[in-house]
Specification:
The structure is a single chain. The chain contains 3 helices and no strands. By secondary structure, the protein is an all-alpha fold. It has one domain (2-99). Helix 1 packs across helix 2. The relative contact order is 0.18. The chain crosses the membrane at residues 12-36, 42-59, 80-99. Keywords: Membrane, Transmembrane, Transmembrane helix.
């Protein structure tokens, strides 16, 4: 039981690092197409903070059901919570270039 919890925590950290880096690269590439550079600026931090709600929604609605740790209390986010988190994330990603 304890080993499954540790493996799930390791899995969560790996998801945050790997998928977060890929998402950050994709977003920075999209900004670069438009000639915007937000790396090493406040906008870069806002991009990072915009990626976390996306990862949280992805984990809570999909990835938690395929992990090592299983219990009956695992539920998806409500539609309202998902919408609020996704809209706040899109808003942060949209306004990030303004903070260069």
């Amino acid at each position: 039981m304890m080993l499954r919890v540790i493996l799930e925590l390791f899995r969560i950290i790996t998801i945050i690092l790997v998928i977060g880096m890929v998402m950050g690269f994709i977003i920075n590439s999209i900004y670069a197409i438009f000639g915007i550079n937000v790396e090493n600026t406040t906008g870069g931090w806002i991009v990072a903070m915009g990626i976390f709600p996306l990862l949280y929604v992805l984990y809570k609605n999909r990835l938690q059901f395929s992990g090592f740790y299983k219990n009956g209390g695992q539920v998806k986010l409500s539609n309202r919570a998902t919408t609020i988190l996704l809209c706040s994330s899109v808003l942060m990603l949209t306004v990030a270039p303004l903070f260069r």
